[in-house]
Design a protein that fits this description.
About 35% of the residues lie in helices and about 25% in strands. The chain has about 160 residues and is of the alpha+beta class. The protein has a single domain, classed as Phage tail protein beta-alpha-beta fold, CATH 3.55.50.
């Protein structure tokens, strides 16, 4: 971690209450530090993420999770956020859907997304994904499914 310029004492900009595969957890955890991992002889080796590198193909579990999360985003969910922090929006959505939602840790660490940014908007009788796109638009954000989680991120 030192070779990659990462302070081992630095907090991880990711809060989740979900069950994830080790693979997804490692990807989410390490991506904010520009790191990835390799498994060699049963050991996990942390390495610098190569620019333009091709990510590993999704596992069967990750593909199942992505399908499930896509289904969640196509369903309607009644909500009305008024001056609510982005962090509280994520917590509310996770609680109400029973699915993992998070703020992109890479964007948080880079400072391009503020978890305390204020969100205002309602579902307006639309599917959750469409409604989220609309209320996140003023922040330049949108939801994406990655590593078994719906991440709120910037393009």
């Amino acid at each position: 971690m030192k070779a990659a310029g990462v302070d081992p004492g630095e907090p991880i900009p990711l809060t989740l209450t979900a069950r994830l595969t080790h693979r997804s957890w490692l990807e989410l955890f390490l991506s904010s530090f520009g790191l990835t991992y390799e498994i060699r002889n049963g050991d996990i080796l942390l390495t610098a993420r190569k620019s333009g590198g091709v990510p590993a193909a999704a596992s069967a579990r990750q593909l199942e999770a992505a399908q499930r999360l896509e289904g969640v985003l196509t369903k309607k969910l009644i909500f009305d956020f008024r001056g609510t922090s982005l962090a509280d929006v994520v917590k509310t959505l996770a609680d109400r859907t029973g699915e993992p939602f998070a703020i992109d840790p890479v964007a948080c660490r880079a400072g391009s997304v503020d978890p305390e940014a204020i969100v205002t908007g309602s579902d307006q009788d639309r599917p959750l994904g469409e409604a989220l796109n609309q209320i996140l638009k003023p922040l330049g954000m949108h939801p994406v499914i990655r590593d078994e989680v719906v991440l709120l991120t910037k393009p």
